[in-house]
Write the structure tokens for this entry.
Amino acid sequence: MDPVEKLLALEEIKQLRAKYWRSLDTKQWEEWGSVFTEDCWLKFDGGVSTGGGDPQTHPTVETRKGMVEFVSNLLHQAVTVHQGHFPEIEFISDTEAKGVWPMEDIVEHATTWTHGHGHYHDTYRKVDGKWLISTVHLKRLRMRVTTVGGIPGRAMPNG
Amino acid sequence: MDPVEKLLALEEIKQLRAKYWRSLDTKQWEEWGSVFTEDCWLKFDGGVSTGGGDPQTHPTVETRKGMVEFVSNLLHQAVTVHQGHFPEIEFISDTEAKGVWPMEDIVEHATTWTHGHGHYHDTYRKVDGKWLISTVHLKRLRMRVTTVGGIPGRAMPNG
Amino acid sequence: MDPVEKLLALEEIKQLRAKYWRSLDTKQWEEWGSVFTEDCWLKFDGGVSTGGGDPQTHPTVETRKGMVEFVSNLLHQAVTVHQGHFPEIEFISDTEAKGVWPMEDIVEHATTWTHGHGHYHDTYRKVDGKWLISTVHLKRLRMRVTTVGGIPGRAMPNG
């Protein structure tokens, strides 16, 4: 890629990530699925890894279809807010890239809500001329769980 | 626009939005007004629209002059923090664009403070060679109101 | 710089800032030091400056070596989250730039945690073909201190 093609690809990948968060938080599940490759996977660490290895890793969710099913079941009834801050993106080839995005999320269920911070470690692949997310690994810096009506907790038990 | 002109216009619109938030939170009202077209308008939804339509919409504020008056009266004495995260911006023509920005705001008055999340749905127009914000519609994902000394509330009554 | 060189420099400076926050929050101190010029300095205002001048300014920390020592001693044991939002960056010459970044930080020590918002006012310098951060001045809009198990405080004493 020449410099201009690279800058356009960077903007496309950033807007793809913005679409991921907007469609997730507004519960547009079909649109959310459209940002992934068919064979994508998602792994999110269950514990806080600041200062050490990951104490607990949730099972990987696989394929676009599997991810839409899993995530929509988990979050459709919840109020969610996902934020991504300025990323570091690097191209591996003309059709492959990787990126790290600082993140914050709030997930509010009927009786508890969680507030977390961390980094998404992504890979991207260009398929039929369009950049898509191929893998996502979410690592946590910090996680707090609050019971409605209670005082914010210090951290998750495994944090 | 060719690709480079498009990339420069994207950067200009993003820095325009950054100027909006910085001048708002540091109470530079004349500078804040300078980011808008003369005939701009602003609408902010009063309720949380996650999972449904908007239960309550505040009246639209119109014109640059009207907006500066309205917003400076509302917020000059408050401590405010407004954040915008990575946007989706699309060009309609060489002089018109639209954008969606994920947002978070904290507005702290003497006895209460609000903490909200949502999306700005903007339009932009190029006037005399400069991009300006022509309309802003703020939709909410989540809103919490805290009374000073009390426990954070679950949501606004109409949320 | 021509427009494409300028766009590439903007992306490089933004990714440099992203590297600063990621390496700080994951406690990679050598990598964190690598984003600065050898003669850099850092000043962070101790008080909230919304609506007036700064009531208290911490001493400036100087040189890359001095900053790594000071900041790693201060934060290595803490859980930290630093976020930067969309910046305003301006070039002074082909090798000098300045930028303003809206920011949020959480610093969680054993018995207290702080949650702050403000702006980084940076300068950058190109050294041996690479952009580096030469100075950082952090100004605060808002700061809250919470004692673990207690109710979030209104503001720092000098806020």
